[in-house]
Amino acid sequence: MIEPEEVPDRILTVPNFISLVRLACVPVFLWLLFGQDDRLGAAVLLGVLGATDWVDGWIARRFHQVSTVGKVLDPTADRIMLLVAVVAIAVDGSVPVWFAALTLGREAAVSLVALVLGAMGARRIDVTWWGKTGTFLLMFCFPLFLSSHADWAVADAARVLAWICGIPGVAISYYSAAGYVPFAREAMRGGRAHCSPS
After folding, report:
1. Cα 89 to chain center, whole Å?
2. Is the whole-model pTM more than 0.90?
3. Residue-wise pLDDT tens digits, 43-83
4. Degrees (nearest 5) of the Cα angle 87, 88, 89?
5. What is the greatest pairwise CA distance in the chain?
6. Which residues have CB under 8 Å from 1's CB, separation 6+?
7. Which sign does the torsion angle of CA 180, 124, 67, 197 carry?
8. CATH T-level topology, domain 14-188
9. How buried is residue 156: exposed, middle or buried, by Cβ count under 10 Å (0-12/13-18/19+)?
10. What are the extents of the domains in the chain?
């Protein structure tokens, strides 16, 4: 039975539009960072995009616009934004390589497992609260790392805040990845049962 707040067949919703706008802004972020050499502008844009991750989720729940497309589009937008941001900021030299590698390693592992599970017929696994929290912290720590290398008065404070968000963000993201294991097993069982003849 479908919950009242879910509209699984709807595509044109405000949260989905916000997710698409976030994806469309990724090239703008790259243009600001590499085309205009504007680290502060790129950092501000990335921070705003990270903040909207919670906005679209709130709108979806508050105005009954949760949809199947949104459940896929939102985490996909998160992952693309985070991967592009991490690689770009690492290339820029504004974040330690080892920290970027830890973040990318987790994202690559989760993406690979999701692809394998999908190929094996498992049901889609919804993003957990811990996963969203880890992504949220990382989506703020990387703009802070970037802005700490910009020419402005609070660069040193931004670097401290980057570590304050970054260390818990990485720890929580790995914790959330481990927490997906039982969900993955259940999804596999559900997927196989669905594919089995009645």
Report:
1. 16
2. no
3. 999 999 988 877 877 887 788 888 888 788 888 888 899 99
4. 95
5. 67
6. none
7. negative
8. Four Helix Bundle (Hemerythrin (Met), subunit A) (1.20.120)
9. exposed
10. 14-188
